[in-house]
Amino acid sequence: MLEDVDTAVSVRYTLALDHADLGTFATCEGLGCEVVIESREEGGNNAFIWQLPTRLKYPNITLTRPLGKDTEKIAKWFAGIATGYTRCTGIIEVMTSNGRKIAGWELYDVVPVRWKGPSLNPDQPKVIMESLEIAHHGFVSKMGG
Fold first, then answer.
1. Exposed/middle/buried for residue 109 (C-beta within 10 Å: 0-12, 13-18, 19+)
2. Whole-prediction pTM value?
3. Three-state DSSP class for residue 78
4. Which residue spans adopt a coiled-coil conformation according to this UniProt entry (predicted)?
5. Which CATH architecture has domain 11-141?
6. Contact call for residues 92 and 104 (beta carbons, < 8 A)
7. The dihedral of CA 67, 73, 78, 79: what is its sign?
8. What sign results for the dihedral spanned by CA atoms 144, 6, 66, 121?
9. Residue 131 CB: number of other CB atoms within 10 A?
10. Over the range 72-92, which residues count as b (16 or more CB within 10 Å of their CB) and which as e?
11. pLDDT digits (tens, 9 = 90+) for 59-97
12. How many CB atoms within 10 Å of residue 130?
């Protein structure tokens, strides 16, 4: 019997921090990592240049969604930074439309970078969107349900 394969066609992304659930998002971009390479030439060796891995680099993650009641949670998180900030752990989970978790990642040392509110233009009626950008210092996969 073949195992069910979920292709994640209709998904949503949830973001929870140590102290708050920031809700559900429609898109999630930037989750990944890159190995930073240092090139070294060896005297007398003209065949190749050594490619040495030095560290991992993590891009910022941007999550977007239609403006809604969970926007207040992000506003409170950002407002709290004025009195000091403690890095926290974050969890991004990918959920199917029926609420089943199909993938997840635990992010270390999450810090907020940017919140971008909607562009309010009556000449271009469309869904009012917001985006949240976060930085982190590494992650581990928390796959499956």
1. middle
2. 0.83
3. helix
4. none
5. Roll (2.30)
6. yes
7. positive
8. positive
9. 17
10. eebeebeeeeeeeeeebebbb
11. 999 999 998 899 999 988 888 888 888 889 999 999 998
12. 18
Pull the structure tokens for residue 108.
């270390």
Both tokens assigned to 12: 């949503």
Angle at 84 between CA 81 and CA 86, to 5 degrees: 90
Higher-pLDDT residue of 79, 105: 105
Task: Determine how many CB atoms are found less than 10 A away from the CB of residue 15.
Answer: 25
Q: What DSSP assignment string belongs to 18-69? A: SS-EEEEESEEE----EEEEEEE--TT--S--EEEEEEEE---EEEEEE--T
Residue given tokens 């271009």 in the structure block: 124
Which pLDDT belongs to residue 8?
Answer: 52
Query: What are the pLDDT digits (tens) for 2-51?
Result: 445 455 567 899 999 998 899 999 999 999 999 999 999 998 888 999 99
Structure tokens at 17: 């921090």
